[in-house]
C-alpha cells in the first residue's frame, strides 16, 4: 500500500526545549544594547508540510489486471512558540511566532482500464 509519511516540528522558543528532561532553572535576562534596560526578543519560525501518496492501477481486459485501491497520507508534528519550562525570563517584550503556511496530507487513487474490442 503506498504510504506517505511526514513529521516535523516548527517551533521558536526561549529557554529549554519543551522535550528537555532537565529540571534545573534557566535564568535569561534580555537587556538593551547598553545593558541598562530590558530588551526585546523577536523570533519567528515558519514551516510548510505536505505528505502526498499516489496509487495508480491499470487493467487490460482479458490480459492483465492490477488492482491497488488504497493510498495513505499521514502528517504529524508540532507548530508552536513558547517560553520553555523551568525558564526564568526577564525581558521588555517577547514576540514569539510559529506558523505553518501549508499543512496538507493528500492521497490520490487513479485507475485506468483498457478493453479489447471484438470485431467479427
Describe the 3D structure.
Helix content is 0%, strand content 64%. The protein has 120 residues and is mainly beta. It has one domain (3-114). The strands form 3 sheets. The protein has a 3-stranded mixed beta sheet with strand order 4-3-7, with no helix packed on it. Strands 1-5 form a two-stranded parallel ribbon.
Using brief descriptors, characterize the structure shown.
two-stranded parallel sheet, 3-stranded mixed beta sheet, mainly beta
Total separate domains: 1
- Strands of the biggest beta sheet: in what spatial order? 4-3-7
Beta percentage is: over 45%
The assigned structural class equals mainly beta
Question: How does the major sheet shape up?
Answer: 3 strands, mixed
Q: Which helices and strands appear, and what pairs or packs with what?
A:
Elements: E1 3-14, E2 26-29, E3 40-60, E4 64-65, E5 72-83, E6 87-90, E7 93-114
Parallel strand pairs: 1-5, 2-6, 3-7
Antiparallel strand pairs: 3-4
Amino acid at each position: 500500500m503506498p504510504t506517505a509519511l511526514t513529521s516535523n516540528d516548527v517551533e521558536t522558543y526561549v529557554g529549554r526545549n519543551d522535550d528537555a528532561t532537565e529540571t534545573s532553572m534557566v535564568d535569561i535576562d534580555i537587556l538593551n544594547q547598553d545593558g541598562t534596560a530590558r530588551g526585546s526578543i523577536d523570533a519567528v519560525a515558519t514551516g510548510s508540510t505536505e505528505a502526498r501518496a499516489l496509487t495508480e492501477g491499470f487493467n487490460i481486459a482479458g490480459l492483465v489486471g492490477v488492482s491497488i485501491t488504497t493510498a495513505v497520507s499521514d502528517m504529524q508534528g508540532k507548530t508552536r512558540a513558547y517560553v520553555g519550562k523551568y525558564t526564568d525570563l526577564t525581558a521588555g517584550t517577547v514576540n514569539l511566532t510559529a506558523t505553518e503556511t501549508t499543512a496538507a496530507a493528500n492521497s490520490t487513487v487513479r485507475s485506468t482500464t483498457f478493453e479489447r474490442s471484438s470485431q467479427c
